[in-house]
Specification:
By secondary structure, the protein is mainly alpha-helical. The protein is built from 9 helices and no strands. It starts with 15 loop residues before the first helix and ends with a helix.
């Protein structure tokens, strides 16, 4: 005889496989309330509610125990056990391949806030890059400073002074950053540019 219990509500699993397992478990335990299941298997009512809602995956050994306990016919029990194990395996595989919720990936911030912060970072980076490009263009257009002769035995190259070399490297780094939107590369480029400006000043 089916006992009247609290309505179970809809399935709430994060994957179709989790909901399929939960639906199977609901059908298997349809004659029991979560209170009765808690008393029968020594598992909390909260856990049983989560198992049957799909928000938590039932342990395989517990699932097998429930099948052995509730399916009386031996031949039917073998088929139900095989189906239970298959559904459990699919649910666990889907669980392991599902990324965590957005709130966890972003430190608890709402997704729209994360996107706004990212847009602000991009705008700030582009503005800084534009300012640096203008400084470099100005320095490139300025008349070159007189080149000091190398001291006797010096190793400097008068055709490629350090300032020009640093500026060329900075310009090349900026070109690479335009092609690859990478924050680490951006920071590296800023360091190179500042070094080049130091030599030029």
């Amino acid at each position: 005889m089916v006992k009247a219990g609290r309505p179970q509500g809809g399935l709430k699993g994060q994957t179709e496989q989790a909901n399929a397992l939960a639906a199977f478990l609901r059908n298997l335990t349809k004659d029991f309330t979560v209170r009765e299941l808690a008393e029968r298997y020594k598992i909390s009512k909260t856990s049983w509610g989560e198992y049957r809602a799909g928000t938590k995956t039932i342990e395989l050994h517990l699932l097998q125990h429930v099948v052995r306990d509730l399916v009386r016919d031996e031949r039917a029990r073998a088929a139900v056990t095989a189906r239970a194990e298959e559904l459990h395996q699919l649910a666990k595989a889907a669980e392991n391949s599902t990324p965590p919720p957005t709130a966890l990936r972003t430190g608890g911030e709402p997704p729209d806030q994360v996107l706004r912060d990212a847009d602000a970072d991009v705008r700030e980076s582009k503005e800084l890059l534009q300012a640096l490009r203008e400084v470099i263009a100005h320095l490139q257009a300025a008349p070159p400073a007189p080149t000091k002769p190398n001291p006797p035995g010096g190793t400097g190259d008068p055709d490629h002074p350090p300032a020009a070399s640093a500026l060329g490297e900075a310009t090349e780094q900026l070109a690479q950053m335009r092609e690859h939107d990478d924050r680490e590369q951006f920071l590296a480029g800023i360091a190179v540019i500042l070094d080049g400006l130091t030599h030029l000043c």
